[in-house]
Predict the 3D structure of the following.
Amino acid sequence: MIAQGHPRNFLLAGFLLSALASSAAPAQERDGWSIEPSVYLFLAGLTGTVGVGSIEVDLDEPSSAIIHINFAAMGSVRVAYGAWALSTDVMYADLGSTKDQFSGSVQELIVEPTISYRVLSWLEPLAGVRYDRVGGEIGGPFGHARALTQGWVDPILGVHLRLDLSESVSLDFRGDVGGFGVGSKLTWQAFPYVRWRFAEIAALQAGYRILSIDYEHGSGTERVLYDVIELGPQVGVTFPFDL
């Protein structure tokens, strides 16, 4: 069973990272526009419970569950002017799962637009929404649940922290918390990573991402339960341009 840490612990770790930059000066704003498109791969494992109608699958025992990725597409783009930035992250994954006598599939689309303002060179608070659409079909020994699709929007508040280790390498942390009963009961995310700008127009990033979603809606055959933590390594490449 994979331990489920409290979101405050991850956000606290992020703020502790910011304390390491005690000598940081106010952010040096660049004039003009910049754009940073990125592509990445999130190699996520699942823990939690997924349900459609009256049928549920408990994923908290990964040794007895087989989860495979049928298809995934992930990317983001950040457009900035001075200290302001608008970012949009998009992730789509088609997952299949079998456990004991249960089998099913889950398709998830996440679109996350946020706006942020760089207060200091290492501190960038952000706010936005996380749109999540989940479709699923689960079959078991006592019945078969028809496919259902449910979408919802969660407000989120978060922070991006950056500690420059050299001119080309930085240690970053991206975290947020949201939901608050608007869509999900609670959703939170923590993503510490290392960024290496190895060329003028290209940078690599590698880290470990944790995304928690606690959502339940409907009743009877229309019930959708998606109470999961998606976690695993994430690697990607960014192409920064000044306009």
User: Anything to note?
Assistant: The radius of gyration is 19 Å. The chain has one helix and 14 strands.
